[in-house]
Design a protein that fits this description.
The protein starts with a helix and ends with a helix. Helices cover 44% and strands 21% of the residues. The protein is of the alpha+beta class. The protein folds into 2 domains: 136 residues, Phosphorylase Kinase, domain 1 (2-Layer Sandwich), CATH 3.30.200.20; 92 residues, Transferase(Phosphotransferase) domain 1 (Transferase(Phosphotransferase), domain 1, Orthogonal Bundle).
């Protein structure tokens, strides 16, 4: 069994981790921040998220991919954010900026009492955060569940807390929401502060996506009503 797990880990490392990420992970293990990398719990075009063991239990390790070309195309989420004015125009620097931005946005969410992963550590293209699940099994995404009216109510309340703190998610959908004992908002790398010139456009898109999704599932909300509740 141990040999099988080592072979599987090698497959993951060889296919997913670039040399730079592997070196960083080794340093994090040396510092005791990560004790053991386990297996991927989420994979995507922009990043992979792994279950790992930390000093106090399970943690989630999100590794943004360096060689994708995606992040340069998402410059609009960085360029208008006053927190990131001096970013060198290279793929690697954009990736690092998205990782830093996700970590800072998670910190803002924690201070605002938003239901989202608690941030633990960030370095270059790696973000370490609270693992959300039971045992070693992550909570399902909302898209994998039967949505309920109370889910939308929780999403509205969390989005309102973010807005009051001066933050907009920017990519809110049933794919970026976990459903456990309560709703959790995920993937805040595209989140922007209200000073961003397109912040309210992003918020409008987020809320319209959610209204559309819940309507498709027989739960009626009107965009104007949700907008007023979130923005006050």
């Amino acid at each position: 069994m141990a040999e099988y797990r080592e072979k599987e880990r090698w497959k993951i490392e060889s296919k997913v981790f670039d040399r730079s990420s592997l070196l960083i992970l080794n340093k994090l293990m040396g510092k005791g921040i990560i004790e053991e990398m386990e297996y991927p719990i989420s994979t995507g075009k922009e990043a992979h998220v792994f279950l790992a063991k930390g000093a106090e239990g399970n943690i989630a390790v999100k590794i943004y991919k360096i060689e994708t070309g995606i992040f340069v195309r998402k410059e609009k989420y960085i360029a208008g954010d006053p927190r990131f004015k001096k970013i060198k125009k290279s793929e690697r620097e954009y990736v690092y900026a998205f990782a830093r931005k996700e970590f800072r946005n998670l910190e803002m969410c924690e201070r605002a009492g938003v239901s989202a992963p608690i941030p633990i550590y960030q370095i270059k293209n790696i973000v370490i955060m609270e693992f959300l699940g039971e045992g070693d099994k992550a909570y399902p995404r909302l898209i994998e569940c039967i949505p309920e009216k109370k889910d939308m109510e929780e999403i509205i309340e969390n989005t309102k807390k973010m807005y009051k703190k001066g933050l907009v998610h920017g990519d809110l959908s049933p794919y970026n929401i976990l459903k456990g004992n309560k709703i959790y908002l995920l993937d805040l790398g595209q989140g922007v502060v209200l000073e961003h010139p397109h912040a309210k456009d992003f918020l409008e898109r987020d809320l319209k996506n959610l209204v559309r999704y819940f309507k498709k599932n027989g739960i009626e909300y009107e965009f104007e009503e949700v907008w007023k509740r979130v923005t006050g």
